[in-house]
Amino acid sequence: MVQIPADWLARVFLSLRRGTSDDAHALAGELQPFTEKPGQRVPIPRATVLRTGLALRKEIDIADEQARRAELSDQAEYLVKAQFLD
To answer: Which letter does DSSP use for residue 67 in this model?
Structure first.
C-alpha cells in the first residue's frame, strides 16, 4: 500500500475522468472511493498506483495541449516518487 493524500488523488481522478482512453476512465472509477477523505493520506494498493501511472502516461501521449501534458506528467512523476518513498 502507498499512502497518498486524498486531495491529490481527487485531482488525478478528475484528470483521468477527462481523459480520452478507456484505461483512463476505468482507473478514474477505481480511484473515486479513495478521494472521499479530503485532508487525509489514504492507502492505495501498489497495483492501482502502477496502473494509474501507466494510464497517465498514455494520456500524456494522447494530449494535444502542452499545459495538459505538463499537468499529467507532474501527476505521473508524483506517483513514481510516492511508490519509492512509502
So the answer is: H
Alpha-carbon separation of residue 16 from 5, 25, 84 (angstroms): 17, 6, 22
Q: State the cell numbers at 10.
A: 481527487
Q: Considering Cα of 52, then 53, then 59, then 65, what sign does the dihedral take?
A: positive
- Going through 32-71 in order, the beta strands assigned E by DSSP cover 41-44
> What pLDDT is stored for residue 14 in this prediction?
93
Domain boundaries, the chain: 2-85
pLDDT in tens, 14-33: 999 999 999 899 999 999 99
Rounded to 5 degrees, what are φ and ψ at 53? -60, -40
C-alpha closest to that of 31 among 45, 18, 19 = 45
Spans in the chain with pLDDT lower than 50: none
